[in-house]
Design brief:
Strand order of the largest sheet of chain A: 1-3-2
Oligomer: homodimer
Helix content of chain A: 55-70%
Structural class of chain A: mainly alpha
Low-confidence stretches of chain A: 1-5, 145-161
Number of helices of chain A: 6
Shape of chain A: globular
Chain lengths: 161, 161
DNA sequence: GTTATAAACTGAGTATACTTATTAAAATAT
DNA sequence: ATATTTTAATAAGTATACTCAGTTTATAAC
């Protein structure tokens, strides 16, 4: 404690936890080139046919801009396809490619292992409480699990209660 | 649930929690222009005299590159000063300016309120368990509170156990 | 049927948060 | 005393994750 100024403020710890989580994600994937966000979007697109980008953004809890960038990268790598929608020419319909599915199959086990390792310092009871608390916070602040998806979340749309 | 694909995977929830945390931070500050990372560094520099950047990086749990960028921005705004160190001319000594202290005084209450609001969905017992679990995870993965500070954490330095 | 509004996306800009490579200075080894 | 290694900082590059402004297309109002 003499050596650092960690005040253990929630916001600080949450930021570091995210960094740790991403770090473990990357090492667990070893040679595979895939970021957590790319994985989330690939998974979302794999689970649902013909999503447009705004829909992906809502499901992945990202803004439209970030979503557009990430989908573009996935498209460039041949992991997803993108076409202008017939019914609504403003929107682009996104789908996984066979390559995308193959990649998802290769990484799914490794990602599960990463999640386990991340939470390994907690015993099963602690782990369940931790995840329940996490979910509770998100449900309160973001209506996760409800039909109301607003996004984005970076700045200015959270009012103090 | 029909509306979204939230699988409630830990990594996913942690990322969204971080987004919510940052969002609440920004709205709680209202007109004040300060990011969470800038606040962390400003706070670190306020609490310790004559830190060099690598030291700040260790204390704030950031890599040298990010720390350099953020300190540069703070310097540009006149919130910190930076000079080449006398004892070690490789390193730069950083200190808060009076403006920096003034800003810290203005925002400290608002930031406390933000932390409270973030965790408001939890009752006191839940809140304590949540923070204890959070700390436990970080201590295990990062030696927070110990003298061994390694950083950075983004990629590749976490081995699966 | 035209007009106003809203929605999907894009582009530019800012700020993390890392990576590798490079430079310079200090510490260590022999 | 010199050669090696380590350390502090920077530079360039990538990938989030937002902001706001703008374009195109669809929907709603009238």
């Amino acid at each position: 404690m003499a050596e650092n100024n960690i005040d253990l403020a929630p916001g600080f710890m949450i930021r570091v936890l995210q960094q740790v989580s991403v770090s473990i994600f990357h090492s667990s994937l070893e040679a595979e080139e895939l970021t957590p966000i790319q994985h989330t979007i690939l998974k979302t697109v794999s689970a649902n046919k013909n999503l447009d980008q705004s829909r992906i953004a809502a499901l992945a809890f990202l803004d439209a801009s970030t979503t557009g960038d990430v989908v573009k990268r996935l498209e460039k790598r041949g992991l997803v396809s993108r076409e202008v929608s017939e019914e609504d020419r403003r929107s682009r319909t996104v789908n996984v490619t066979p390559e995308g599915r193959k990649l998802m199959r290769r990484v799914s086990g490794k990602i599960e292992a990463a999640q386990k390792f991340l939470l390994s310092p907690l015993d099963p009871a602690e782990r369940d409480m931790f995840l329940a608390a996490l979910e509770k916070i998100l449900v309160f602040h973001e209506n996760i699990g409800s039909d109301e998806i607003t996004g984005p979340w970076q700045r200015g749309n959270k009012k103090l209660g």
